[in-house]
Design goal:
This protein is mainly beta. It is built from no helices and eleven strands.
Length: 123
C-alpha cells in the first residue's frame, strides 16, 4: 500500500520561506513514477504546482510558482520536497503531494495522495 505523508507546513509572514516534505512508502520508485505537489483552498479545485519524474529528475512548474518554488527529491530517503520562497498571502492553502505514472498537471491522473499540510501566509 502506497503511503504519502506531508510535513513542514506552518504559519509564516509574507516573504518568508518554507520547505515541505513528503515521505513515500510502499512504492517502488521506478522510472514510471511521477510525483507532484498540489494545493487547495476551500471551495476550489486542487491546483497543480510542480511535478517531477522520480528517476530522471525532470521537473515541470505551474507559471504561478515558477521561480519561487522548487521541487526536488532524495531517493535514499524516499522523500519529495517543495522549497517555497518569497511566500505570499495568496499561497495560503493545504498542500498535497501525489503520485502518478504519467506526466500530467491534472489531479485526476494522480492515484495516491497524502493527507495534506496547511500553509498560512500572513501579510
Amino acid at each position: 500500500q502506497v503511503t504519502l505523508v506531508e510535513s513542514g507546513g506552518g504559519s509564516v509572514q509574507a516573504g518568508d520561506s518554507l520547505k515541505l516534505s513528503c515521505a513515500v512508502s510502499g512504492l517502488s520508485l521506478n522510472s514510471y513514477v511521477r510525483m507532484a505537489w498540489f494545493r487547495q483552498t476551500p471551495g476550489q479545485e486542487r491546483e497543480f504546482l510542480a511535478a517531477m519524474s522520480w528517476i530522471e529528475g525532470n521537473t515541470y512548474y505551474a507559471d504561478s510558482v515558477k521561480g519561487r518554488f522548487t521541487i526536488s527529491r532524495d531517493n535514499a530517503k524516499k522523500t519529495l520536497y517543495l522549497q517555497m520562497n518569497n511566500l505570499k498571502p495568496e499561497d495560503t492553502a493545504v498542500y498535497f503531494c501525489a503520485k502518478s505514472v504519467i506526466h500530467s498537471i491534472e489531479s485526476k491522473w494522480y492515484t495516491d495522495w497524502g493527507q495534506g499540510t496547511q500553509v498560512t501566509v500572513s501579510s
